[in-house]
Amino acid sequence: MRRDRRGGLTRMALLLACAGALFVAACGRGGSEAIVAAERLKLRSSTAEVSRVTAELPIGSRVTVLGRADEGGVSWARVASPEGQEGWAEARYLVSQEVADSSRRLADEMRGVPAQALGRSKATLKLRLSPDRTAEGNVVMTLPANTELEIVDRERRPRPVANERGAANGAAQPVANVKEGEPPGGLKYDEWYKVRLKGNQIVPAGWIYGGSVELEVPPEISYYASTGRRIVGWQKIGTARGDRESGDHYLALERRASDADERVNFDRIKVLAYDPARRDYSTPFREDVEGKFPLTLKIDGSRGTFQVQAFDAQGNLRPLDYAIELEPNNRVRVTRLTPREPVQPKRR
């Protein structure tokens, strides 16, 4: 058998490239298409920690995936751009066209709905297409820590029996939630946020596991949460102006910190009105109402309205409407427009 020296060198170079890139987890070929979902995607000469950056691709760039690898717990993809740039990139920043389209459909569902709260990821976590972490098929991409999030909706879902550990991203673990004969109230729940990603046009929306999200309550009102409750949503009403001081009025939604009804997103509405003279907040309006997002607020000058979705006595959601007025003395007045439910007479 005649040996082709040139061919032998070519095969040896390919083997060395695969080994150096993966040590050797995987070295494969492929031709799938992907879209860059990170603001700037760095392409590297290899997957080694000391590898050099060969190119950078902006968000929205389309690439061909030539191979995939896992090294040190990180998934990598070897990609090539239409312009001929080639290198290794972290696979978590690449999405398929199908996934990008699904994320955009979620964003379309939220179009026109105001953010109910703002948050920030405390660690890397997975953006998903549905509030379910029992499988990986609904993962859009992995977001880096400190990602800004607009929270539009919130869901509480019973935690799967085999998903006690693993917080934001872990796989299911065999930990039972409910003992035999234990009532349904013994179930544990996962908190999920339906979010928009600021400035990301490729994957603009998805679901985030709430355990890894820190709400960024405006610092000026963060200490005014009711005893035993926490602020879970807020919207700015207007600005109070004084001779030397100014501050913002807020409409806040609160929820019990413990023993709360798992159906509800909030169980109290209140206004936090700023007084420039006292440099302090007061609560001119407060009402205990159990409801779900969204809260919609419309202000035109010094007058406006807001609406919440609240549970009635039969457990059905119905809209409650309120009028709001910003008075010249920096006070805020709220009037409920929806009549209260009639009190049912007690049976004798």
Plain-language structure description:
With 348 residues, the chain is mostly beta strands. The protein contains two helices and 22 strands. Mean pLDDT is 85; it is low at 1-30 and 163-184.
Brief overview:
The chain is mainly beta and 348 residues long.
Count of helical segments? 2
The SS-based structural class is mainly beta
Q: Strand arrangement, largest sheet?
A: 6-5-4-1-7
Number of spatially distinct domains: 3
| Terminal Cα span | 104 Å
Radius of gyration: 26 Å
Strand segment count: 22
H/E series, N to C?
Answer: HEEEEEEEHEEEEEEEEEEEEEEE
- The percentage of residues in β strands lies in 35-45%
What ranges have pLDDT less than 50 throughout 5 or more consecutive residues?
Answer: 1-30, 163-184
What is this structure's SSE topology?
Layout: H1 5-22, E1 32-36, E2 40-44, E3 53-58, E4 62-71, E5 74-80, E6 86-90, E7 94-95, H2 97-109, E8 117-121, E9 125-128, E10 139-143, E11 148-158, E12 189-197, E13 205-209, E14 213-215, E15 229-241, E16 246-256, E17 268-275, E18 280-287, E19 291-300, E20 303-311, E21 317-326, E22 332-336
